[in-house]
Amino acid sequence: MKTIVGLEIHVQLATATKLFCGCSTDYRDDEPNTHCCPVCLGLPGALPRMNRKAVEYGLRVAKALDMKVPEESEFARKNYFYPDLPKAYQITQYDKPLAVEGTVEIEDDEGHEKIVRITRVHLEEDPGRLVHVAGAAKYSLVDYNRSGIPLLEIVTEPDMRSPQEARRFLNKLRTILEYLGVFDGDREGSLRVDANISLEGSQRVEVKNISSYKGVEKALTFEVTRQKNLLRRGQKVTRETRHFMEGRGITTSARGKEEEHDYRYFPEPDLRPLRVAGWVAEIDLPELPVARKNRFTAQYGISLNHARTLTGDLKLADFYEEVAHVDPALAATWVADTLLGELNYRDMSIAAVPADRFMELLALLRADTITDKAGVQVLREMLDACAAGSPCEKPADIVKREGLGKAAGDEFSGIVEKVVAANPQAVEDYRAGKKGALNFIVGQVMKETRGRADPRELGRIVSECIDTSGV
Amino acid sequence: MAGSLDFTPDDRCNAFITTCREAPFSDGALAGVAVAVKDNISTAGIQTTCGSRILEGYIPPYDAHVVELLRKEGAAIVGKTNMDEFGMGTTTETSAFGPTRNPADPSRVPGGSSGGSAAAVAAGLVPMALGTDTGGSIRCPAAFCGIVGLKPTYGRVSRYGLIAYANSLEQIGPMARTVEDVSRLMSAIARYDPRDSTMLDKPYDHRPSADIAGLRVGVPEEYFGEGVDPRVAETVRNAIGVLEDLGATTVPVSIPGMRYALAAYYVICTSEASSNLARFDGVRYGPAVDTRKSWHEAYQDLRLELFGPEVRRRIMLGTFALSAGYAGRYYAKAQVARRNIRQDFERAFREVDIIAGPTMPTVAFRLGEKTDPLSMYLSDILTVPANLAGIPAISVPCGRVDGLPVGLQLMGREFEDERVVDAAYAYEQGVKA
Amino acid sequence: MVTESDIEHIAELADIGISKDEVPEFTTQFNAILDYFDVLDAVEGESAPAAGITNVFREDEPRPCLSQEEALANAGSTEDGFIKAPRVM
């Protein structure tokens, strides 16, 4: 049974001001109703004014997704009544969107490249935010700070075949948007998704209100299971809208009024049409993920896998390029393999990692001052401090404080002699030709030095020590 | 010479909803001139109701652009005038604050929807006032009360701060006893405002000239047809004769699209209104909604209680005209008809400079005379074409029938407001001489 | 022809209250008006793209907002800087 998924993605564009007024978009953590004016409060008589930057950002996305920009596009009113919608209509685009027919390339579930077609992108305004107050008296509280934030709605064709593909598509799209500089993925609620999902031959279900791209896979996986179970029991899937409950990881039916909307679209008489197709040729796109990946393999000589990982996130790629001059290959391994794993474990963003300190760590590794193992330990100390909001200590100071410097010289040979002397049976086995015995002794020395010794070098020294010690 | 004006009018016509006892003013071209403002134009700190209970007590936190300009020119804003609720009427009887009476005959309506502004001027309470014109709402009361009123070209005066009824049709415009004062007020308010995206930067800086020698005046047969009181038609024909005496030549023209004008107008204005008036939900402003009820119940109850029947009727008409399955038949067709009418005017204006006809098909109705909505709508037939076409149109008094004022309507090409003002001025001065 | 139940449906769609005794009157008036609108059936021509000015923009430069006090001044009821509205759930 084939799974068919199409997505509608609402992206908050990273403009400085709202779509139709000069109120600042930097509203998070601010008091409610402090980023408002007559326009975004829908006060009688106020008129919208189009933000040029929002149109430019929309066109940048259109160009990056290889879309067609029609000669003329137009804004329309979508009429519905809800207290978070201050004018009782949303200014959006309906039959004349900003751009149509684009593509995004992703990997399918077998690892092959495939195309997801983009139907259209259009600009619209975000409504305000509603807080539901429960208790004896139920009511709503409204904050209009978000009202009028520019959204780019991106609609795909039903080209994805699994929840995992949908997640990969969104990751790819998010990366492109970040590369284009039109979107700040770190802002809460900056990317919201409605997903259409059906099993081949069954009715389609729309899942609304998925407020994170990680939630999309969860919501869709839940839907696949739910719909398959219905069919298994001989029941039918009803065509309906469902809400995703992020906390519980389930979807619930949204019956009632919402089902039978008649939005009565008509052209917005307070705005003039756009004729911006001619702007597209003048847009200089920044280097996009695929180009950067290719450049990374060529310029830094790193593996395709490393390059793909590193360019999969704009900030990660920037971070890599910043720290790469220490040693591109060493940096690739340490950023893509070690650092990324440690960040995921801590649910930390790359933005929290000080590049200068990380470069110092790479320098210590490169100079062989510490072993890989000790390096991981130093990195963990650094990240824990960053996560706690404390200043990040210099790696060299951590090495000193924790005594993690690579063991060498007298200290080193002293420990080897001690371990050799304490393990006569292993020494004898080694001399009898059992290679494993050497590893055992090396392991014992490592334990004594708390990882500060380089295992390969250690093997050489241990064998020398045994060879030169008394028969 | 800044100061404040003591304004305590004898408002026996109920022209005002709100008056400002002490109206401050400053220096400028209109220094100390008392100006009344229609109550659908936002005034910071002064209640603005649109003639509706649903906005009772609403104090805008900002001035409309035209009000900013009036203050800048030194005018004293002395009060907010009565109007049909949200501009929806031709008589000022649908106001929630009681009807306005016509100073020319208190048993008659002043016309609408800017009836309060017209009555305030006609009664001599103020020398000039602002009205708004969506389908004749400046020209109709100007004609009925015997004053001058100009509906400017669409896009000539900023709509910022005008509480929308039908955005694509309406304009704020000047009303006064003389063409000269209308022109003075127009000079103050027709200034570019980037906040209105539908506006062009074409300021009005004009002193009226009575020289109309060689002016070609088009006389459309459709303006003198069925439904037009023959005595009104004759009075207006005589007025056009005065223009000829002053050196103008008349040319018969035709606006065939007129037959669709009224239906197209009512479809468009009610459609836009159904959307514009949905925001009055008692949440952010206006009398408070009952938050103990559920949203849709509270919203419906509030609108039933605080909107008058004509407003609810038009909201429902517009909702229907835009609804799935009907939008193609009503809204889309009305847009085509609108474009056709605009083209009819463009064609006519290749032959003539001005088009002349009656402003209203009849003289002012008696209070309570028009009870049926459709017959009320039909009386707008001669004024709505200018709104559909976006062209300037002025009404200037041109005589009386049964002792009641009749208005001569003069329409011009887009952004040739100066020319219609000149033609009206020439007529006014010619009659006076 | 619209019926009384059509009128009730339109009132529901418009989310506007209508009292029972208004329904017959509104129905009669609607029918008269809609009969008059039938003239539009005879209108010929296709809808064309909007004429006139295009591309009216403002620059992306922040302007001062209203204070919270100003934003809430006309609201019927407020709570902790929020505006209170009827429940929607």
From TrEMBL, chain A:
It comes from the Archaea. The keyword ATP-binding applies. It is an enzyme of class 6 (ligase). InterPro entries: Asn/Gln-tRNA_amidoTrfase_suB/E, Asn/Gln-tRNA_Trfase_suB/E_cat, Asn/Gln_amidotransferase, Asn/Gln_tRNA_amidoTrase-B-like, GatB, GatB_C_1, GatB_Yqey_C_2, Gln-tRNA_amidoTrfase_suB_CS. Signal peptide: none annotated. Residues 318-466 form the Asn/Gln amidotransferase domain. Keywords: ATP-binding, Ligase, Nucleotide-binding, Protein biosynthesis. The keyword Kinase does not apply. Its EC number is 6.3.5.-. It catalyses: L-aspartyl-tRNA(Asn) + L-glutamine + ATP + H2O = L-asparaginyl-tRNA(Asn) + L-glutamate + ADP + phosphate + 2 H(+); L-glutamyl-tRNA(Gln) + L-glutamine + ATP + H2O = L-glutaminyl-tRNA(Gln) + L-glutamate + ADP + phosphate + H(+). Transmembrane segments: none annotated. Belongs to the GatB/GatE family. GatB subfamily. HAMAP family: GatB. Heterotrimer of A, B and C subunits. Allows the formation of correctly charged Asn-tRNA(Asn) or Gln-tRNA(Gln) through the transamidation of misacylated Asp-tRNA(Asn) or Glu-tRNA(Gln) in organisms which lack either or both of asparaginyl-tRNA or glutaminyl-tRNA synthetases. The reaction takes place in the presence of glutamine and ATP through an activated phospho-Asp-tRNA(Asn) or phospho-Glu-tRNA(Gln). This is Aspartyl/glutamyl-tRNA(Asn/Gln) amidotransferase subunit B. It comes from Methanoculleus caldifontis. The lineage of its organism: Archaea, Methanobacteriati, Methanobacteriota, Stenosarchaea group, Methanomicrobia. The gene is gatB.
Automatic annotation (TrEMBL), chain B:
The active site is at 38 (charge relay system), 113 (charge relay system), 137 (acyl-ester intermediate). Residues 88-115 are annotated as: Disordered. Keywords: ATP-binding, Ligase, Nucleotide-binding, Protein biosynthesis. It catalyses: L-glutamyl-tRNA(Gln) + L-glutamine + ATP + H2O = L-glutaminyl-tRNA(Gln) + L-glutamate + ADP + phosphate + H(+). Gene3D superfamilies: Amidase signature (AS) domain. It is an enzyme of class 6 (ligase). The keyword ATP-binding applies. Its EC number is 6.3.5.7. InterPro entries: Amidase, Amidase_CS, Amidase_dom, AS_sf, GatA. Pfam families: Amidase (PF01425). Residues 25-420 form the Amidase domain. GO terms for molecular function: glutaminyl-tRNA synthase (glutamine-hydrolyzing) activity. PANTHER family: GLUTAMYL-TRNA(GLN) AMIDOTRANSFERASE SUBUNIT A, TRANSAMIDASE. NCBIfam families: gatA. Allows the formation of correctly charged Gln-tRNA(Gln) through the transamidation of misacylated Glu-tRNA(Gln) in organisms which lack glutaminyl-tRNA synthetase. The reaction takes place in the presence of glutamine and ATP through an activated gamma-phospho-Glu-tRNA(Gln). Heterotrimer of A, B and C subunits. Belongs to the amidase family. GatA subfamily. This is Glutamyl-tRNA(Gln) amidotransferase subunit A. It comes from Methanoculleus caldifontis.
From TrEMBL, chain C:
Keywords: ATP-binding, Ligase, Nucleotide-binding, Protein biosynthesis. SUPFAM superfamilies: Glu-tRNAGln amidotransferase C subunit. Gene3D superfamilies: Glu-tRNAGln amidotransferase C subunit, N-terminal domain. Its EC number is 6.3.5.-. It is an enzyme of class 6 (ligase). It catalyses: L-aspartyl-tRNA(Asn) + L-glutamine + ATP + H2O = L-asparaginyl-tRNA(Asn) + L-glutamate + ADP + phosphate + 2 H(+); L-glutamyl-tRNA(Gln) + L-glutamine + ATP + H2O = L-glutaminyl-tRNA(Gln) + L-glutamate + ADP + phosphate + H(+). InterPro entries: Asp/Glu-ADT_sf_sub_c, GatC. Belongs to the GatC family. Allows the formation of correctly charged Asn-tRNA(Asn) or Gln-tRNA(Gln) through the transamidation of misacylated Asp-tRNA(Asn) or Glu-tRNA(Gln) in organisms which lack either or both of asparaginyl-tRNA or glutaminyl-tRNA synthetases. The reaction takes place in the presence of glutamine and ATP through an activated phospho-Asp-tRNA(Asn) or phospho-Glu-tRNA(Gln). Heterotrimer of A, B and C subunits. This is Aspartyl/glutamyl-tRNA(Asn/Gln) amidotransferase subunit C.
